[in-house]
Amino acid sequence: MxxxxxxxxxxxxxxxxxxxxxxxxxxxxxxxxxxxxxxxEVAYVNDKAELIKGQVVALPWTxxxxxxxxxxVSVLTNGAGDGxxxxxxxxxxxxxxxxxxxxxxxxxxxxxxx
Length: 114
Prior knowledge:
- Its main location: membrane.
- Belongs to the MmpS family.
- The protein is mainly beta.
- It has one domain (24-112): MmpS1-5, C-terminal soluble domain (Immunoglobulin-like, Sandwich), CATH 2.60.40.
- The chain contains 1 helix and 8 strands.
- It has one helix at 2-12; strands spanning 27-35, 39-45, 51-58, 61-68, 72-79, 85-91, 94-101, 106-112.
- The strands form 2 sheets. A 4-stranded antiparallel sheet has the order 4-1-6-7, with no helix packed on it. The chain has a 4-stranded antiparallel sheet with strand order 3-2-5-8, with no helix packed on it.
- A hairpin with a 2-residue loop joins strand 6 (85-91) and strand 7.
- The longest helix has 11 residues, at 2-12.
- The protein starts with a helix and ends with a strand.
């Protein structure tokens, strides 16, 4: 009987993600930044955990999304111009990934939110 009560309690608090001593799920602010020359083709994981690909954007480019703890977030870019290509991934204002390339015009920044 107590196992059933715990299951009901966990279901009741599933919205917050807190159950059985686990940390509650938090919403994070994620900022994708890509810089370089000219334009680039950008693919990224959006706020619904869907991969959005094939968008050609002018650089510099920035996008802000919201994502929950445990979500995988990523931005991948393929530059069209000459010169360095840089991606930066920020979570709640802190830089968590930075990548740059001058020889191959492809960079990816990603992380799983903790």
